[in-house]
Amino acid sequence: MTTTTTTTTTTTTTTTTTTTTTTYYYYFYYYYYDYYYTTTTLLLLLLLLLLLILLLLLLLLLLLLLLLLLLLLLLLLLLLLLLLLLLLLLLLLLLLLLLLLLLLLLLLLLLLLLLLLLLLLLLLQLLLLLLLLLLLLLLLLLRLLLLPLLLLLQLLLLLLLLLLLLLLLLVLLLLLLLLLLNLYYY
User: Fold this and answer.
1) For this UniProt entry, which segments traverse the membrane (predicted)?
2) Cα–Cα distance for residue pair 33/108, rounded to 1 Å
3) Which pTM was predicted?
């Protein structure tokens, strides 16, 4: 009787050991599989995240490069506009200088023309004075013959001479003024 009980106990112990080993093996297998699966998925997710971060960084770099290129283009356009404005200002200054030079030349020509006209007037007045002097001499010669009439004519001629002298003085004054103006402009 006692021997059978021992055999039953041994059988029960053997069954319990087999069930515990199988359950341990199953647990180990599932745990390892779960661990492997979770680690691989986590690694894949990390890789995906890294790839996304790299792509975002590349996109940011490209955007920065595009912005820099746009800024450089804007700076170049501004420089070109400034150069064009400077050229236009220089051209306007040159045109103004040319106009001023032309005006000065015209003024000088007008002054020279006035000088020539005054000189011609002087020559004409000198000729008239010579003619009057000749007439006076003739009248002086004729006075011996015709005294009463010649006195009146002589007075008239003297008056004419005085007028001509006054005109000559005026012309000389104008000439002096023009010469002073020329000296002042030069």
Assistant:
1) 35-59, 66-90, 96-119, 126-146, 152-185
2) 111
3) 0.42
